[in-house]
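Researcher: I'd like a candidate sequence for this fold, 78 residues long. If you have to choose between options at a position, lean toward the conservative one.
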Protein backbone atom coordinates (compact mmCIF):
# COMPACT_ATOMS: atom_id res chain seq x y z
CA UNK A 1 0.00 0.00 0.00
CA UNK A 2 2.85 2.41 0.84
CA UNK A 3 4.54 1.85 -2.49
CA UNK A 4 1.27 2.42 -4.33
CA UNK A 5 1.28 6.02 -3.06
CA UNK A 6 4.70 6.75 -4.55
CA UNK A 7 4.93 4.64 -7.70
CA UNK A 8 3.90 6.27 -10.94
CA UNK A 9 4.53 5.22 -14.53
CA UNK A 10 8.09 4.29 -13.47
CA UNK A 11 6.84 1.15 -11.71
CA UNK A 12 10.06 -0.74 -12.35
CA UNK A 13 11.81 1.45 -9.75
CA UNK A 14 9.67 0.37 -6.79
CA UNK A 15 12.53 -1.43 -5.03
CA UNK A 16 14.24 1.92 -4.30
CA UNK A 17 11.28 2.86 -2.12
CA UNK A 18 11.38 -0.22 0.11
CA UNK A 19 13.63 1.30 2.82
CA UNK A 20 11.31 4.30 3.16
CA UNK A 21 8.23 2.06 3.25
CA UNK A 22 9.83 -0.12 5.93
CA UNK A 23 10.74 2.93 8.03
CA UNK A 24 7.20 4.33 7.80
CA UNK A 25 5.66 0.98 8.75
CA UNK A 26 8.00 0.46 11.69
CA UNK A 27 7.40 4.03 12.94
CA UNK A 28 3.64 3.59 13.39
CA UNK A 29 2.15 2.15 16.56
CA UNK A 30 0.87 -1.38 16.13
CA UNK A 31 -2.78 -1.85 17.01
CA UNK A 32 -1.95 -5.28 18.44
CA UNK A 33 1.01 -4.52 20.70
CA UNK A 34 0.11 -0.83 21.27
CA UNK A 35 3.64 0.42 20.64
CA UNK A 36 5.93 1.43 17.80
CA UNK A 37 7.54 -1.55 16.08
CA UNK A 38 11.00 0.03 16.23
CA UNK A 39 10.73 0.15 20.03
CA UNK A 40 9.92 -3.55 20.08
CA UNK A 41 12.63 -4.52 17.60
CA UNK A 42 15.57 -2.29 18.58
CA UNK A 43 14.26 -0.43 21.67
CA UNK A 44 14.38 3.02 20.03
CA UNK A 45 13.10 4.88 16.97
CA UNK A 46 15.95 5.78 14.60
CA UNK A 47 16.07 9.28 13.16
CA UNK A 48 15.04 9.66 9.53
CA UNK A 49 17.76 12.17 8.72
CA UNK A 50 20.85 10.38 7.42
CA UNK A 51 23.37 13.02 6.31
CA UNK A 52 25.90 10.44 5.09
CA UNK A 53 23.53 9.11 2.45
CA UNK A 54 22.50 11.02 -0.64
CA UNK A 55 18.80 11.45 -1.28
CA UNK A 56 17.14 9.98 -4.35
CA UNK A 57 13.82 11.68 -3.64
CA UNK A 58 12.83 13.81 -6.63
CA UNK A 59 12.20 17.50 -6.14
CA UNK A 60 8.68 18.85 -6.24
CA UNK A 61 9.23 20.26 -9.73
CA UNK A 62 10.49 16.90 -11.01
CA UNK A 63 7.48 15.16 -9.48
CA UNK A 64 5.06 17.67 -11.04
CA UNK A 65 6.76 17.22 -14.42
CA UNK A 66 6.28 13.44 -14.19
CA UNK A 67 2.59 13.98 -13.40
CA UNK A 68 2.22 16.26 -16.45
CA UNK A 69 3.98 13.70 -18.67
CA UNK A 70 1.78 10.88 -17.36
CA UNK A 71 -1.38 12.89 -17.97
CA UNK A 72 -0.24 13.81 -21.48
CA UNK A 73 0.50 10.17 -22.25
CA UNK A 74 -2.95 9.18 -20.95
CA UNK A 75 -4.64 11.85 -23.08
CA UNK A 76 -2.74 10.70 -26.16
CA UNK A 77 -3.76 7.11 -25.48
CA UNK A 78 -7.41 8.15 -25.25
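Model: Candidate sequence:
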Amino acid sequence: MYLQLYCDTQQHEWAKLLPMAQYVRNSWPSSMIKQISFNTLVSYTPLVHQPTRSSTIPSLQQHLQKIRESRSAALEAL
